[in-house]
TrEMBL record:
It comes from Planctomyces bekefii. This is Uncharacterized protein.
Length: 19
C-alpha cells in the first residue's frame, strides 16, 4: 500500500485525498 501511495503521489500529487 505504501508503494502505491508513493506512485500516486508522483502521478496525482495528492495520494492522501484518495487514501
Amino acid at each position: 500500500e505504501y508503494a502505491v501511495k508513493t506512485t500516486l503521489n508522483i502521478d496525482l500529487s495528492k495520494p492522501l485525498v484518495k487514501f
